[in-house]
């Protein structure tokens, strides 16, 4: 129904962003809202997926068509819903995900929140050999392609936001607490904290 929305980001939190276009604010649930930045002077294009079920109507937003394509493929897997698909994409490394599916690497796939052995096996059965059209050849980190403006929050606020985002993705507080000491060693943006934490949590 909607392919993309172009407008300005007016609000974001760990679960979603609001993009305004022609006076209408669209709520878009995204893998990592902090790849976007609130800036009323900068237009942003977000690729959308309109999710409709009997009890749910929602818009999901992505920084690229490739990311949207992967989300759509993940939704076709039995046992994976929108929230689970977003958590998987939030790792920020789609190439690694595709490689794990192609190589039948269940050990890597079960590291994602909400993905057990049964779901990992289902991902392999349903998606192996079917992702080349989404990621033809080598694809760079999708999240690095989004233009980032200077961080407007302090280091502590950025880390707090990252922790909240990780909780939304399904990580337990005890898991998050294990990586916080390493995160505190550097001054990063919220997006960078999230990506670094996910790299450590997926090891």
UniProtKB/TrEMBL annotation:
InterPro entries: DNA_helicase_Holl-junc_RuvA_I, Hlx-hairpin-Hlx_DNA-bd_motif, NA-bd_OB-fold, RuvA, RuvA_2-like, RuvA_C, RuvA_C_sf. The keyword Chloroplast does not apply. Keywords: Cytoplasm, DNA damage, DNA recombination, DNA repair, DNA-binding, Hydrolase. It is found in: Cytoplasm. Residues 72-91, 107-126 form the Helix-hairpin-helix DNA-binding motif class domain. Its main location: cytoplasm. The keyword DNA damage applies. CDD domains: UBA_RuvA_C. One of its GO terms (molecular function) is DNA helicase activity. Homotetramer. Forms an RuvA(8)-RuvB(12)-Holliday junction (HJ) complex. HJ DNA is sandwiched between 2 RuvA tetramers; dsDNA enters through RuvA and exits via RuvB. An RuvB hexamer assembles on each DNA strand where it exits the tetramer. Each RuvB hexamer is contacted by two RuvA subunits (via domain III) on 2 adjacent RuvB subunits; this complex drives branch migration. In the full resolvosome a probable DNA-RuvA(4)-RuvB(12)-RuvC(2) complex forms which resolves the HJ. The RuvA-RuvB-RuvC complex processes Holliday junction (HJ) DNA during genetic recombination and DNA repair, while the RuvA-RuvB complex plays an important role in the rescue of blocked DNA replication forks via replication fork reversal (RFR). RuvA specifically binds to HJ cruciform DNA, conferring on it an open structure. The RuvB hexamer acts as an ATP-dependent pump, pulling dsDNA into and through the RuvAB complex. HJ branch migration allows RuvC to scan DNA until it finds its consensus sequence, where it cleaves and resolves the cruciform DNA. This is Holliday junction branch migration complex subunit RuvA. It comes from Bacillus songklensis. The gene is ruvA.
